[in-house]
């Protein structure tokens, strides 16, 4: 029988802290299955950032470090230098990755540091109340865009495409979505293997849902996530 709970989850110590229906929880389920499937739980060190990713602290039964504003990536770059056998995963939101912490991913990708970065793009600053972020699409109503985000502020920030332009040629860069758990799982596995087998930098942006701040039910959340794919296409970014 297929297990519905990844073995690498720390459920006894830390039950699910995300809101019901949150894309972070969906991603962590597939990340757990990826770690189980590759048999690497004992090799993983996890880094979580500020934002709702912080709620994943101690979520997996692996050593976990927390820093702020995208600095999880350079922290793990340094950690990996002194512990090269560890597989390091840097996990954060789009605010941390594509806003305040952008410089951190750029340089790790440029140097091809062997780190796997996972960015949850839920189109808002979720932990602080759903304010508009760089990935928020034009017209979206948020507490900081009460009449809809102005198109003059941009048509949606494409972090993976930006990173592709500066990254080392061997870096693995892709986008996936919580609406397709099979694609999500296989993309996460590829990003982990890029580091484990070939010592390459890897980045996965996950299109995610935030029902609490979006104020959406199940169907409307999924509809919005499908809509995101028109601006942020899933697949490998070449
Ligand atoms: C300079 C600065 N501005 C604002 C904040 C407040 N802050 C903490 S978490 C957060 C939102 C993070 O959003 P994101 O990285 O997208 O993660 P999410 O919560 O959406 O998963 C903000 C704005 C801060 N800590 N520092
Ligand atoms: S606020 Fe949004 S991103 Fe944060 S845990 Fe709740 S649903 Fe998830």
From TrEMBL:
GO terms for molecular function: oxidoreductase activity, acting on the aldehyde or oxo group of donors, iron-sulfur protein as acceptor; thiamine pyrophosphate binding. Residues 50-206 form the Thiamine pyrophosphate enzyme TPP-binding domain. Keywords: Oxidoreductase. Pfam families: TPP_enzyme_C. Gene3D superfamilies: 3.40.50.970. Coiled coil: none annotated. One of its GO terms (biological process) is cellular respiration. This is 2-oxoglutarate synthase. PANTHER family: 2-OXOGLUTARATE OXIDOREDUCTASE SUBUNIT KORB-RELATED, SUBUNIT OF PYRUVATE:FLAVODOXIN OXIDOREDUCTASE. InterPro entries: 2-oxoacid:Fd_oxidoreductase (IPR051457), THDP-binding (IPR029061), TPP_enzyme_TPP-bd (IPR011766).
């Amino acid at each position: 029988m297929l297990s519905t709970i990844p073995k690498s989850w720390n459920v006894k110590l830390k039950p699910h802290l995300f809101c019901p229906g949150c894309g972070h929880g969906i991603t962590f389920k597939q990340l757990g299955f990826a770690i189980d499937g590759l048999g690497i739980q004992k090799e993983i060190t996890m880094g979580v950032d500020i934002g709702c990713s912080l709620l994943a602290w101690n979520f997996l039964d692996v050593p976990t470090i927390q820093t702020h504003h995208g600095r999880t990536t350079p922290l793990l770059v340094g950690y990996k230098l002194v512990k090269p056998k560890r597989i390091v995963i840097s996990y954060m939101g789009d605010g941390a990755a594509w806003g305040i912490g952008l410089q951190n991913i750029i340089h790790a990708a440029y140097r091809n540091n062997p780190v796997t970065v996972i960015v949850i793009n839920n189109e808002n600053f979720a932990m602080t109340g759903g304010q508009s972020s760089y990935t928020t699409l034009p017209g979206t109503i948020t507490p900081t865009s009460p009449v809809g985000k102005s198109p003059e502020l941009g048509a949606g920030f494409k972090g993976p495409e930006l990173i592709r332009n500066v990254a080392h040629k061997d870096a693995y860069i892709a986008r996936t979505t919580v609406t397709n758990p099979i694609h999500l799982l296989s993309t996460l596995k590829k990003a982990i293997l890029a580091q484990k087998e070939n010592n390459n930098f890897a980045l996965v942006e996950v299109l995610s849902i935030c029902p609490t701040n979006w104020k959406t039910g199940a169907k409307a959340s999924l509809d919005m996530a499908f809509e995101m794919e028109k601006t942020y296409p899933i697949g490998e970014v070449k």
